[in-house]
Amino acid sequence: MRKRDTVDLDKMRNEDFKHYSPEVIRKYEDPEYAKAADEYERKARRRAGKHGSSKPGMPSFDMGKRSSGGGGRRAKRASRQSGSGATTRTKWNKGKFIRNLIIILIVLFIAFVAYFFAITSHFDKVDTSNSNFAINTQVAQDLKGYRNIAILGVDARAGEGYDGSRTDAIIIMSIKKSNGDIKLISVMRDSYLKMNENGTLTLDKITHAHAYGGGVDTCAALNRSLDLNISEFIIFNWKAVADTVDALGGITVNVKSSEISDLNKYGPGTAKNVGGSYTRITTTGKQRIDGVQAATYCRIRKTSGGDTGRANRYKKVMSAVLKEAMTSPIGMNKLAKDVLPEIRTNMSQPQMLTAVLRAPGYDIKKNISWPKSYYGGIVGQLWYAVPTTLNSNVKWLHAKAFEQVNYTPSSTCQSISNEIISTTGIQ
Fold first, then answer.
1. Are 234 and 343 in contact (CB under 8 A)?
2. Does pTM surpass 0.90?
């Protein structure tokens, strides 16, 4: 490079290239000069953009003939973008996109709520707003973090009403509000507890509480004796179970070898109760079962694991029904019309909606069978499951289900425990 051609690059930048024409810059093939030319070109385009067009006398480089650097290629791209055939880019509006997305989600949610309310309007609803559920004030405070719902399967036959029927299955679905963890607590139907019989508190089998006063008295007996806070219940008979499964086209369960004998033994009786027919099950393993088979599957307990086995099978049927319902909108419509009128509840539609919206976060952690310790035998002239003792079994339940270590039962619970010991002599 000749001395007379030496260029002070810093001066070029500071003086904004005012004294250098494109012809002068193109003389130099050194990369430093190429960078300077590129910078000059960018500034020229920036000025042109501010004023809508190039100012008079402002040079525009044609760097296409340069043999080094990237300025030529950039100039060609700029030329293509500024030509008459240039494509206009649409700027993405993030705020508008988010707004439209929110509107769509709100519309879908409103449609879902309307559909949900239309379906749940078919339940056999009972108003219990002024009822006494016998919830102890201190217990209500201690269990405020848990939503406990009584799920009651009664022995009403096809065509019979629920009034006066007894409970074959008593499941307390306990939901921990903070994280959605669920525990299913099964209570033995023959448990010897305190209930309201025609206005008088008496000791009897918990299965009879529903015959005396329906869902309210069953919840009250459980609350009074076990220190619980149940104020919501769902009542169904085995026909409702059979009809639900049939409406969904059946469910898939894993039948164990120990269950086949009881299934085939009690299946015909279940069919008679629900008004259907029973098909014998001959193989073990995962298989599709119909409504009568599913109802029988829920009920059996003699040689199939007792109450613990029954609770496990009931959980499996519930999970299978939910899975089928989510993938069968036609089945859901049939359920709403034909099955939900068979299911009685005191839950309001907003309460049901809250449960459904939180359902994706629910996680069934374990099954608990109560009482843990009991005497099973004849007391007087009837067979009872007498907790030994009620006091210690309630302590165990609250530690197991509600993480209340060293729980002290209420004075009401302790009084009932002493009365059971005094009446039966069992402790």
1. yes
2. no
